[in-house]
Task: inverse folding
């Protein structure tokens, strides 16, 4: 295990882009890019909890903004403009995580409740996934998700996988040509696993980060565990990248519970890396 960067806050949303790892420090309100030599620089500054992002097929970053309840487009100089208004869907911010498929469809999920007030009670969960198509039009395409977290799209753009942290499972949906979702199913029951950020590899296995269990786990469809990487703090998200796609990057921090999001705590955030046996999967464009 290699430590690439330390002294960070709550780190999330790692993305491999243009031969660098991009990630968000939620506490600093920064999106940072780091290369293989450890050289890093801030690309975007935006105060938002959460602060998640992904890239359109042309390389343009889209950022989910809680304060603006919107999806924002980042210019090369880091300035932000509105890409889509998400305020019609929830009063609890723009969303928690985002993934963009090869057609340029952006999927944004939202737990859709006041996380500081405690988890809502009921058989039906309030979380949902909204779709923003390349023309900027947004609509809800899936609901009844229990704290939706990391998401990934298969390389053929046919399947969306969503981590349901509070149901300890990965859910999957078929993606239609217009971006809509159907045929919801349990992709993997994770037992005591609490999936946060996820990524797919070239064998369509999922790596999921697990905060309370301090690990990243590689799991196949159906739930078979293929590999586990243990660390000394909460694993918030993971991403495959590097020159051959076989470097597993992990963003990790000390987790003191949901109430710590509102206070000054020693997160001790880190960016870590280790080797994986199977390379990354990338949604095909078009």
Result:
């Amino acid at each position: 295990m290699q430590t690439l960067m330390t002294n960070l806050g709550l780190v999330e949303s790692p993305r491999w882009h243009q031969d660098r790892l991009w990630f968000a420090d939620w506490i600093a309100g920064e999106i940072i890019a780091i290369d293989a030599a450890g050289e890093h620089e801030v690309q975007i500054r935006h105060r938002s909890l959460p602060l998640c992002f992904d890239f359109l097929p042309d390389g343009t970053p889209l950022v989910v903004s809680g304060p603006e309840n919107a999806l924002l487009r980042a210019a090369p100089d880091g300035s932000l403009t509105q890409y889509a208004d998400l305020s019609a869907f929830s009063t609890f911010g723009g969303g928690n995580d985002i993934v963009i498929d090869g057609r340029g469809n952006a999927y944004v999920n939202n737990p859709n409740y006041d996380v500081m007030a405690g988890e809502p009670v009921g058989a039906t969960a309030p979380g949902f996934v909204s779709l923003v198509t390349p023309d900027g039009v947004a609509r809800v395409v899936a609901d009844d998700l229990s704290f939706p977290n990391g998401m990934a799209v298969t390389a053929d753009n046919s399947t969306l996988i969503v981590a349901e942290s509070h149901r300890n499972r990965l859910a999957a949906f078929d993606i239609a040509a217009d971006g809509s979702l159907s045929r919801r199913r349990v992709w993997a029951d994770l037992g005591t696993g609490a999936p946060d950020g996820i990524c797919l590899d070239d064998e369509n296995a999922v790596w999921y980060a697990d905060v309370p269990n301090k690990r990243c786990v590689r799991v196949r469809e159906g739930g078979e565990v293929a590999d586990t990487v243990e660390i000394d703090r909460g694993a918030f998200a993971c991403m495959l990248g590097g020159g051959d796609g076989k470097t597993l990057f992990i963003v990790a921090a000390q987790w003191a519970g949901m109430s710590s999001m509102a206070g000054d705590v020693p997160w001790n955030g880190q960016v870590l890396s280790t080797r994986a046996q199977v390379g990354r999967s990338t949604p095909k464009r078009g």
The chain has one domain: 2-275. The longest strand covers residues 181-189.
